[in-house]
Design brief:
The complex is a heterodimer of chains A (127) and B (215). Chain A has 127 residues and is of the alpha+beta class. Chain A has a single domain (11-124), classed as 2-Layer Sandwich (Methyltransferase, Cobalt-precorrin-4 Transmethylase, Domain 2). Chain A contains 5 helices and 6 strands; from the N terminus they run βααβαβααβββ. Chain B has one domain (24-214): P-loop containing nucleotide triphosphate hydrolases (Rossmann fold), CATH 3.40.50.300. Chain B is 42% helix and 19% strand. Chain B contains 7 helices and 6 strands. Chain B has a 6-stranded mixed β-sheet, with helices on both faces. Chain B is globular. Classes of the chains: A alpha+beta (127), B alpha/beta (215). The interface between A and B is medium-sized, with 32 and 30 residues.
């Protein structure tokens, strides 16, 4: 992903389309997210991750946490409602809807102020 | 009944007996840090195992459990039947670990850094168990805190996506600020049972539900 100006100028926000994500493998998505977040960027995914990818994101994040360098991530999506609506066959075939706008940022720079079914409010600070 | 049907039925019964006798279901106890997972695991182990050994140490400092611990062959008796399960007490799941938070609990910096490193390994381990090695989940929440967090939303979504049976426990009902209804509102698609693992309140209903969900 193209580099921008000096990070001290502000906070970089990467808005990643569902189309761009659809062409990537799970590990490519996770790598892209964590590389962005570790540089201090806020990553916004138009269509979010699947539950399995979320599970792997947590796992890989844990392996990268390092004292005084990286404390992990803050992640917010709207609560998942499709999981219970999708039929077993849909889930088996990987057709479960994951189209949930997802915001991910460095844990020390992003703070969730409020969250409900329809609204996510976050406070983003510089490093 | 035809010979073939009878044979199939016998094989099915034999297989079922074989699995129930040799393969107790592994039930993972999951939830965020400090929800009371180890307190619950210890309570179950003390109530239903011969020596009543604790599964692990309990503490108010987050991430006291930093390794998944399995207690095998816990036999819970309900209504004349025995449910044989392994309980797996897992580290609290989070997306961030900051060692400086442990310094607030009068910990030396070296100890805090070590604890945070072990905690991250433990969370990764818990996620791996969830994807690969558990047959059902008891999801423990502190009913005195807001259940509407991203970790809870994600974990319940991950559990649902794997079609694992899940029983949600609203723990710490002995606390004044406890609100079981708040948890029911957050996860209306699942049954929530209230409990105080510390005081042993309502454990009978918990055991009834364990037998119903995982038996």
């Amino acid at each position: 992903m193209a580099e921008v100006k000096d990070p001290h100028d502000g906070v970089q926000i990467d808005l990643i389309s569902g189309e761009r994500l659809a062409n990537q493998t799970s590990m490519e998505k996770i790598r892209m997210i964590l590389d962005g977040v570790r540089e201090g960027n806020i990553v916004i995914l138009e269509e979010g991750l699947s539950p399995d990818e979320e599970s792997r994101l947590i796992e890989v994040t844990m392996t990268e946490i390092s004292p005084d360098e990286f404390n992990g991530i803050e992640i917010e999506t709207y609560p998942r409602s499709e999981a219970t609506d999708a039929s077993f066959l849909d889930r088996l075939m990987g057709r479960e809807s994951t189209k949930k706008l997802t915001v991910i940022g460095p844990a020390n720079q992003i703070e969730t102020l409020h969250k409900d079914e329809t609204l996510i409010q976050t406070l983003v600070s510089r490093k | 009944m035809g010979i073939l049907t009878e044979l199939k039925s016998s094989i099915s019964r034999a297989a079922s007996t074989l699995f129930s006798a040799e393969d107790p279901k592994r039930i993972g106890i999951y939830g965020p840090p400090n929800a009371g997972k180890t307190t619950l695991a210890n309570r179950i182990a003390r109530d239903w195992t011969e020596h009543g050994d604790a599964v692990g140490p309990e503490s108010e400092i987050p991430h006291e459990t930093r390794r998944a611990r399995r207690k095998e062959n816990v036999e819970i008796e309900r209504n004349g039947k025995t449910v044989d399960i392994d309980i797996v007490d897992t580290p609290g799941v989070t997306t961030k670990v900051d060692y400086t938070e442990f310094l607030e609990h009068d910990m030396e910096e070296d100890d805090a850094v070590r604890r945070s490193r072990e905690a991250t390994e433990g969370v990764a381990e818990a996620m791996h168990w969830l994807r690969e090695d558990v047959d059902g989940v008891i999801y423990v929440l502190d009913s005195a805190t807001d259940p509407f967090t991203q970790v809870n939303t994600m974990l319940i979504g991950i559990i649902e996506s794997q079609d694992l049976p899940v029983l949600i426990l609203a723990n710490k009902i002995d606390l004044e600020e406890s609100s079981v209804q708040r948890i029911r509102n957050a996860f209306p698609q699942h049954e929530t049972v209230q409990v105080s693992a510390l005081e042993g309140d309502n454990m009978d209903e918990v055991y009834d539900k364990i037998a119903e969900y995982f038996g």
